[in-house]
Amino acid sequence: MRLMIDAHLDLSWNALSFNRDLTQTVDAINEAERGMADHPCRGKATLSLPELRNAGIGVCLGTILTRCNPAVAAVMRTDLDHRDFAITRAVGQGQLAYYKVLADRGEIVFIKDVQTLDAHWARCEKNKLPGAVGLILSMEGTDPILSADDAGRWWEDGLRAAGLCHYGQSAHAVGTGFNGPVSQAGFEMLKAFEQLGMILDVTHLSDQSFDEALDRFNGAVLASHSNCRALVPDERQFNDEQLKRLIERGAVIGSAFDAWMLYTGWERGKTSPDVVGLEAVVDHIDHVCQLAGNCKHAAIGSDLDGGFGTEQTPRDLKRITDLQKLDGLLKARGYSDADIDAIFHGNWLRFFRQNLPE
């Protein structure tokens, strides 16, 4: 089993919104949800903290995920949208509080700097299996950050990477499902990020916001969970010119495992997972490698249990431990052991060693 870094897991939102105890086994979580029908993912979870350890995931990016949208009245605990920014920030802080409890219990280790990353990774390599999972705090959509000044307070809380938007329009940029510009508040946020050393996650940025953000932001960038538009045509994916631009900036692109991003024409609630397998993920990884001319920019950002379960994963992925199947699939494509280690963890390790504070 190879050690792995997963660059996108909505662990706290998953726990708090779906009322899941992530310290339990996946079987226990799914058994507790037997018969529940409030969401299609009920009883179809793929991960928990024990399962992450069994999968060899030594480090992950764990998100804060909540949005402000006054036009939408949240009626279910799984809804992401809230009426005002104060509520949105408070919900984000609540998600952070969950991670802090996990850290207090020894389930995770917060990674805020290179020294902690190196020490934690050395333990993972020595033990062969992770103990506590290392967690780099990220944010998917910056609505919980009330101002450029507030970005500094989140930095002190441990936030190290953030994307300006999620779906639709945020206070700072336009995301999936629409196209539009970075706002003035968004440019101010980018300036604050540069001063802090915050990493910009370009995932979910619309085409216009993507171009404007990269034009104005001179700090480190990554794409935590993004696939290739050349293979599955959808504006949620990045086209080749965007991918090349990221490669030129030294970014790493984490391939996502949501089946609708792997299969052209997927219809949520209708298409069967049988139509697509993990080979499709390898297609996206390989496409990034071919564009780059090397294996230094492709990695994993699974997004597993990010509001979906096995009803929307590839047919041969039932648990996050199944990510290890990529080893054999990549070997069959001619990738060497060194290449596979880079894709599994080495590229993310290099990136964060370069871009986290000392």
Describe the structure.
With 358 residues, this protein is α/β, with parallel strands linked by helices. 38% of the residues lie in helices and 13% in strands. The chain contains twelve helices and eleven strands. It has helices spanning 11-18, 26-32, 49-54, 85-104, 114-127, 148-156, 184-196, 207-216, 240-248, 279-292, 326-332, 337-355; strands spanning 4-9, 57-64, 67-68, 81-82, 108-110, 133-140, 159-163, 199-201, 221-222, 253-255, 298-300. The strands form three sheets. Strands 1, 2, 5, 6, 7, 8 and 9 form a seven-stranded parallel β-sheet that branches. Strands 3-4 form a two-stranded parallel sheet. Strand 5, helix 5 (114-127) and strand 6 form a beta-alpha-beta unit. Helix 1 packs across helix 4 (85-104) and helix 6 (148-156) runs parallel beside helix 7. The longest helix has 20 residues, at 85-104. The protein is globular, with a radius of gyration of 19 Å. The mean pLDDT is 97.
Please give a handful of descriptors for the protein shown.
globular; single chain; alpha/beta; 358 residues; 7-stranded parallel β-sheet
